[in-house]
Amino acid sequence: MGADLQARWHRSITEIPQPAWQALAAPHDLPHFSWDWLHCLELSGAVTPRHGWQSCHLSLWRRQELIAVAPLYLKAHSYGEFVFDQAFAQVAGQLGLEYYPKLLGMSPLTPALGYRFFTAPGEDQQAMTQYMLKLVDDLCRRNGILSANFLYAAADWAVLAEQAGCAPWLQLRSEWRRTGEADFTDYLARFTANQRRNIKRERNAVARAGISLTPMAGEEIPPGMVQRMHGFYSAHCARWGPWGSKYLTEDFFQLAEQRLRRHLVLFSAHEGDPLAPVAMSLCLRNGRQLWGRYWGSDVEVNGLHFETCYYTPINWAIAQGIQQFDPGAGGSHKQRRGFQGEPFTCLHRWFDPTLDQLLRAWLPESNRRLVQQINSLNARMPLHSRS
After folding, report:
1. Residue 332: per-residue pLDDT
2. SS3 assignment for 214-269
3. How far apart are the first and last CA of the chain?
4. Which of 8, 120, 285, 350 has the fewest Cβ atoms surrounding its Cβ within 10 A?
5. Cβ–Cβ < 8 Å for 153, 163
């Protein structure tokens, strides 16, 4: 790379000008990698060193122009990633190695596809990826960091990172893709007759309970409703006790309502007044895609989770011309409701030769089994045809 390039490491996203970051990230239109989203996580106290997330972003400058950024964090644990590498930590421990802290690339607390090194138009992405990975390697080796990990990688960038020596580890995600549906009836038509009856039965149970659903998107969201969502989110996490994964603070929801509203979609489940919900879900959106994130309920009603988190969002997505819906991590029940299992790639670099050799030898069989699992899940989807 040219001698006129300067690399900088940052302990906060505020050290990188918001317009410069957005100029690189905006073409990909991923709300969870926007400067505002990542700043809200920091500012709200959800992503801080005290909670095991130390911002360690890498930026690359040509004179005064920002030409590349890598969202990176030093992690003191593996929580909030939704990719479970505790087996890696165990192997490292057996070798007498300290697994943490590790270097991590992802949008914190957000299991959504799209991670990459964001580069300016016209730059050689392959050369830039190789150069920035070398900078990552140097940082890790200088500071005794055992691994660098890039989760939920964008498919096109994953190819470049693999070519630059990253080891791929496949994981399972679910996604609904629009296949020409004009309305919810078309969505139902893809299923077998038995599954159509099951879905209608679930939706009817919600209606018989006197509950209706109202979507609210962007500027349609009334003041205070995102704060109401925090209450549902908090209560839902509390039901699971120490396993509740309550990562976001009330301040984050308040900031999101102020600064991220254009990307938010709320689905209010109510008995009459949409502003008095008994359950809610919150999604993110751009022009083509919807991401399911959080939900909670004050009542126990059969089918309410599926209605609030899947069926009404799909109906809304069809009406809005949305092409893809990622409902979030976990849950094999998603396949029965039209969400196809798909592999996604996480990328890893280990800086101990023995650990690197052991894990790279194990990964191909793990990846093969994951593909088999996905094929088996999709083969059991109750659809007339699979596209």
Report:
1. 73
2. EEEEHHHCCCCHHHHHHHHHHHHHHHCHHHCCCCCCHHHHHHHHHHCHHHEEEEEE
3. 43
4. 8
5. no
pLDDT at 242: 66
Tell me which residue has tokens 């150069």: 131
User: Which residues are within 8 A (CB) of 267 and not within 5 positions of it... i.e. 6 or more apart?
Assistant: 213, 214, 215, 216, 280, 281, 282, 283, 308, 309, 312, 313, 316
Distances (CA, A) of 212 to 158, 179, 301, 322, 334: 42, 27, 12, 22, 22
Mean pLDDT on 325-349: 92
Span 117-138, average pLDDT: 97
- Does the CA dihedral 218-288-268-232 come out positive or negative? negative
With b meaning 16 or more CB within 10 Å and e meaning fewer, what string describes 282-315?
A: bbbbbeebbbbbbbbbeeebebbbbbbbbbbbbb
% the chain with pLDDT above 90:
93
pLDDT of the residue at 309: 96
Q: Can you give the C-alpha Rg of the chain in angstroms?
A: 22
Residue 19 contacts residue 114 (beta carbons within 8 Å):
no
What is the Cα–Cα distance from 98 to 4, expressed in whole angstroms? 36
CA dist 252 and 236 (Å) reads: 17
What is the value of pTM for the model shown? Answer: 0.96
Full DSSP string of 49-73: GGGTEEE-EEEEEETTEEEEEE--E
What is the predicted pLDDT for the residue at 386?
Answer: 47
pLDDT value of position 333: 85
Residues in the chain: 387
C-alpha–C-alpha distance, residues 109 and 83, integer Å: 11
Interhelix angle 155-163/125-142, rounded to 10 degrees, is 60
What angle (nearest 5°) sits at the alpha carbon of residue 151, between those of residues 371 and 113?
75
Are 73 and 46 contacting, i.e. CB atoms less than 8 angstroms apart?
A: no
The answer to whether 172 and 367 are in contact (CB under 8 A) is: no
Q: Would you give the DSSP letter of residue 166?
A: P
Give pLDDT, residue 384.
81
Cβ neighbours, 10 Å, residue 363? 15
